[in-house]
Amino acid sequence: MNTLLKTSFIAAALVAAFSAQAVTLDLNLQSHGSYSQAGPLVSVSENVSLQDLVDDSTFNTVTMPLLSHLNYSFNAGSGIGSGSYSNGVDSLSFNFMFSPVPSLNVPSGSVSGNANWVLTGATGAFSNYTIGSGTLSATYSPKIRRTALTSFSGQIQSVPEPTSLAAIGIGIAGIMRRRKKA
Description:
The protein is α+β, with helices and mostly antiparallel strands. The protein folds into two domains: 1-21 and 161-182; 22-159. The chain has two helices and eight strands; from the N terminus they run H-E-E-E-E-E-E-E-E-H. It has helices spanning 3-19, 162-181; strands spanning 24-38, 41-55, 69-75, 80-86, 91-98, 111-123, 129-141, 146-158. The longest helix is centred in the last third of the chain and has 20 residues, at 162-181.
């Protein structure tokens, strides 16, 4: 193989690999709905009213399928829970922990809770996003079993697939081999 062809192959492999770099999205989702409680288990079902996704590197809004439903549950004693945003095809799943745990045993008014969440899975248009974390803030109205607002914000990040990482390795190995011969 002549030198020009080898150099072209190495350059193409590097360009392909670096174009598949990790992408970070800042996300802000807001929803409202209702909840039920059976013993210590609190189950929440909400409709999404706002979805804002922004590419962290370009600050441009990203168009993704609307995640129309939020379902989550947590233990009212420990504050530990899990949930997912979904539209039936695309989803983001997460685990979280309220600290402190909101007490839903008040006769009137509203109660707020804040939690840190960690991404545990994603499907559909979000399937490349494998890392994520942020905050979940919720306001509950115990008397009428409604959530006034749940705000879910943070970042999710895609990780290049193994093929792209292999292409980077091949490109670097080719450059090193070429320099060794010279």
